[in-house]
Specification:
It is built from four helices and no strands. The protein is mainly α.
Length: 120
């Protein structure tokens, strides 16, 4: 067999080079598409997490507002009891401070003075 017969079965060098470059380009394009898909998927997941965090913040804020409104309504509904409690507390405080002041103002007497009722 001569060299010319071998050359007939083999592709030319330029054709193999073009085919390998095309294959490399296709592989690079597929890899780039995969990376782009992963990046897009990550962006979608990040956006979903952000939306969920925002929703949770709104729910928490609305629960706090509802609790505050309920407390305020309870105070308004029971304003007579609240006023009576405050009045009773002030009365008790005044009576206690008066009693403590009276006790502090008394002088101590000895046993003989107490026995005679302060005449001696």
């Amino acid at each position: 067999m001569s060299d010319s017969n071998k050359d007939m079965n083999q592709k030319p060098v330029t054709t193999r080079t073009v085919e390998s470059k095309a294959s490399d380009t296709a592989s690079a394009a597929r890899a780039g598409a995969r990376r782009s898909a992963r990046a897009a998927n990550g962006a979608v997941q990040t956006a979903a997490k952000g939306a969920e965090a925002g929703r949770q913040a709104v729910v928490t804020a609305s629960e706090q507002v509802a609790a505050t409104a309920k407390t305020a309504w309870t105070v308004v509904a029971h304003r007579r009891l609240v006023a009576a409690g405050v009045g009773a507390g002030l009365t008790a405080l005044s009576a206690a401070s008066y009693a403590v002041g009276r006790r502090a103002g008394r002088h101590t007497h000895g046993p003989l003075t107490r026995l005679t009722g302060g005449r001696i």
